Amino acid sequence: MRGLVSFTVLALLLLVHSSQAVYVQDGNLKFSLESVKKLKELMDENKVINPRIVVAKAGYSPCQDKALPEEFQPVCKREDAPMIFERLCM
């Protein structure tokens, strides 16, 4: 009986721990992991791939993309937005 109670408590703790959201932080900015993954997809889709180098398309900003998660909109208003996006996608 004691073993069953211990196992149940452990299972509940693992469940609670695994259901918590994961965040990515850049300085004092904090974004959900799912949003950062979406940002990376958008950034990767907009690169020209050469067999030897990968170069970002000139003038591309994820802020222009309607698929950009809403939580990045405040970043788009900042002058350092391109650097923030690059760091998040590393």
UniProtKB/TrEMBL annotation:
Signal peptide bounds: 1-21
Major localization listed first in the record, in broad terms: secreted
Superkingdom of source: Eukaryota
GO molecular function, one term: guanylate cyclase activator activity
Coiled-coil residues: none
Keyword annotations: Disulfide bond, Secreted, Signal
Classification via Gene3D superfamilies: Guanylin
Subcellular location: Secreted
Family listed: Belongs to the guanylin family.
Function: Endogenous activator of intestinal guanylate cyclase. It stimulates this enzyme through the same receptor binding region as the heat-stable enterotoxins. May be a potent physiological regulator of intestinal fluid and electrolyte transport. May be an autocrine/paracrine regulator of intestinal salt and water transport.
Protein name: Guanylate cyclase activator 2B
Naturally occurring in which organism (per UniProt): Bambusicola thoracicus
